[in-house]
Amino acid sequence: MSYFDIPVDPTMIISKTLTKIDVTGNITLPAKQVMSVLTMMNDATPEKLQNGIEVEVVDIMETDIYHVTTPGIISGMVGVL
């Protein structure tokens, strides 16, 4: 069984239409969606969210997995990933 055969909880999905800047540089995600997902995570404390938290990103289009650390929540947007 592949990792990608495991069903994904739809409430844990963050979606964004990519812009040219997102593709060529770093991506900034909408804070409302990210906060919704992070608050559902058991280990997402306010301190960790302020300082940054490591998350696993599953790219279902490319069947790849990335581990990134969010640099913290900044004025309505999540910092650059």
What's the helix count? 3
Mean pLDDT rating: 71
Strand content: 15-25%
Q: What string gives the helices and strands in order?
A: HEHHEEEE
Unreliable stretches covering 5 or more consecutive residues: 74-81
Shape label = globular
How many domains is the backbone divided into?
1
- Rg for CA atoms: 13 Å
User: How many strands?
Assistant: 5
Largest sheet: 3 strands, antiparallel
Structural class of the secondary structure composition?
alpha+beta
First and last CA, distance: 29 Å
Helix content: 25-40%
Largest beta sheet: strand ordering:
1-5-4
Summarize the structure in short.
The chain is α+β, with helices and mostly antiparallel strands and 81 residues long. Helix content is 26%, strand content 22%. It has one domain (3-78).
Structure description:
The chain is α+β, with helices and mostly antiparallel strands. The chain has one domain. It has 3 helices and 5 strands; from the N terminus they run H-E-H-H-E-E-E-E. The strands form 2 sheets. Strands 1-5-4 form a 3-stranded antiparallel sheet. Strand 4 and strand 5 form a beta hairpin. It is globular. The termini are far apart. The C terminus is likely disordered.
Fold topology:
Blueprint: H1 20-24, E1 29-30, H2 31-40, H3 46-51, E2 54-59, E3 64-69, E4 73-74, E5 77-78
Antiparallel strand pairs: 1-5, 2-3, 4-5
